Amino acid sequence: MRVMIVDDSLLVREGLSALLTRRGHTVVGVAETPSPVPALVRASTPDVVLVDIKMPPTFTDEGLRLAAGLRAQHPDIGVLVLSQYVVGSYVASLLADSHDGVGYLLKDNILRPEILDDAIDRVGTRGAFVDPTLVARMVAADTSLAALSDREREVLSLMAEGLSDRGIAEKLVVSLQTVYTHVQHVFTKLDLPTSSSDNRRVRAVVAYLVGTPEASTTHPPGNH
Questions:
Q1: pLDDT at 214
Q2: What is the band of 91 on the pLDDT scale with cuts at 50, 70, 90?
Q3: DSSP assignments along 76-99, one per residue
Q4: What is the pLDDT of residue 98?
Q5: How many CA atoms lie within 13 A of 162 on its CB side?
Q6: CA–CA separation, 68 and 53 (whole Å)
Q7: Distance in angstroms (rounded) separating the CA atoms of residues 154 and 142
Q8: Which of 44, 139, 182, 193 could form a disulfide with 155 if both were Cys (CB 3.0 to 4.6 A apart)?
Q9: Residue 202, pLDDT score
């Protein structure tokens, strides 16, 4: 994959560049703030842009706004947001319109090559990725999904990670029809009106993420 890195931390930029190169990816550009990114993207045409969630000047939501802008202007480019924060609403805002080519990866996992490769590959091929550590913590903290069975909660958590029905079936070692049935039960129990399957999946995941109590940050405030 052709990858661009946008992060104000020199250590993250250099470390990710070295790791991605060793993993067979091509780093086509780096930036430490959002402002030069549009021109860099036009010049280098990356497959995936890795974006820090909080950057100068305000260290609030620069990364989320940059991700939204990139997705609007370059829908064929995947965007993977890097974050220290286990916060469902951040992920929900990424998935609010579409789950195609977008992901959320905790920085604690960027040095785990198998997770980093999976995230980049899924986002770069128009899939979705949500860090499995984040999903697991939210599932453990959630009290709003009492109507779902244990298996339905498991299926919903895998949907939240970005897996397709086939991916869920392979993960759980069950038939595709079994997964389809569980997914339909999730839609029904969450009272999601009938629409396209993709839209219902997005709404189910967003409802799940927004309805989950916010977990604490993975690091003390001030780090990102």
A1: 45
A2: confident
A3: TSEEEEEESB--HHHHHHHHSS--
A4: 66
A5: 29
A6: 12
A7: 12
A8: 182
A9: 63
